[in-house]
């Protein structure tokens, strides 16, 4: 055998997209010279899944299971995706929330092999060259983060790459994107997390975060390079801090096909679940009094989609906004507060409205004061503030509402506004509860963005959309709310996520046609046609 042949056979085994491990059959072993490099046993994909499950069962905790699955993805990607698809209820918490939080915090500790692209600020002049790799020719979806606001954990720097990797694993599992069609990217512009910069194991650029015009120019260089390399790619912004999340979405949503999952995906998931909840209570959306705790990117996104939904039910904009009370770190948001962001200003209440409200000892209007005054029917948390929904807050809400709808949505579990078991206990079991993380409490729905973003991405791609519109997200939210769940749950089960993604994709593609942004004909956007685009994990 020539040196080139020896190199090629080892390359076949080292590439996670071509490596089958023991599943290479005898004819393949003969053809590619794999004898001796593999044990003689010829396995199947199914037997390999059984072997990996046994390893997972023997591990002590979920973080080590996460690390094992990451290594499996980097060695045999088809097997990784087949394992995830075969048992989504078990695998979803391991490859994404809540375990991905620890994966991001300990990313430098477990990094082994290249996956995705790290575009660091010192390499800003090389971005186009880095993207030019022919191995990336098939890319259809990019998930990008700068690592500044990872879940509720804050600045994780280069460790934030765990989020794009995890999100794209779900694009493959739920929406059927081939793993060669997805690309995770981390914009490494430094970190303000001093502990990371001082950690000798940290793999990122050891520099305080670049901000201002330098940051804007860097992101613009990145977007221009992406648009030139893949004119029709879908770019999903993920876990950017609030001060950047809205700016980037506004700046680029009409320049290329893109959306922000923290703003728009969270909003559609929360609104869809709320529609399911109020249908169960027999009430109308326009009759709800909604308190929103946390008015950053996620909370503000939820509020704006709620306004759209309320207006669609017949309210004018002023009346729709009057149904929402937003509370942030400084209390109920009032129009005379300094330094409100543009989205927060839209949610601000008139100080005259609250002049006679009971205030706390410091003269402020905190969450408890607001709940006691408003007597809300819905309480949504998107704050990242663990335990913010205290017993006093929940009991005050339950005292004014027969069937309170309470969604502590912050991730991971350590940042949840309340434990759902406590919420049920404090409301004597009357609350309808949805959580961002899985808690394993009977009757509690996991309100996870995975119900929305894979279907939105698949629908946008199938439609050949030129941009992602608000109408596409509203259609996704309504479709999710109409699907409902079994028993006490508000949404379909996790093991139905592939069917959910297909259904969402169809309505999103149709909404793209209605909004005039689709390039594919409407008659090509049937469930059967879109399902044919979805890949199943199997060996060629």
Précis, in short:
Helix content is about 45%, strand content about 10%.
Report on the structure:
This protein has 540 residues and is an alpha/beta fold. Helix content is 46%, strand content 9%. It has 24 helices and twelve strands. The chain has helices at 3-14, 26-32, 45-57, 62-75, 77-86, 88-95, 99-105, 107-110, 127-131, 162-175, 194-198, 212-229, 242-252, 261-281, 297-312, 317-321, 342-347, 367-374, 391-399, 420-426, 453-463, 470-483, 497-514, 527-531, and strands at 117-120, 141-145, 182-188, 234-237, 258-260, 290-293, 324-328, 331-332, 378-381, 405-408, 432-435, 445-446. A seven-stranded mixed sheet has the order 8-7-6-9-10-11-12, sandwiched between helices. A five-stranded parallel sheet has the order 1-3-2-4-5, with helices on both faces. Strand 2, helix 10 (162-175) and strand 3 form a beta-alpha-beta unit. Helix 4 packs across helix 7 and helix 5 (77-86) packs across helix 10 (162-175). It is globular. The model has no long low-confidence stretch (mean pLDDT 95). InterPro entries: Aminoacid_DH-like_N_sf (IPR046346), Malic_N_dom (IPR012301), Malic_N_dom_sf (IPR037062), Malic_NAD-bd (IPR012302), Malic_OxRdtase (IPR001891), NAD(P)-bd_dom_sf (IPR036291). One of its GO terms (molecular function) is malic enzyme activity.
Structure keywords:
Malic_OxRdtase, five-stranded parallel β-sheet, metal-binding, seven-stranded mixed β-sheet, oxidoreductase, 540 residues, NAD-dependent malic enzyme, alpha/beta, 24 helices
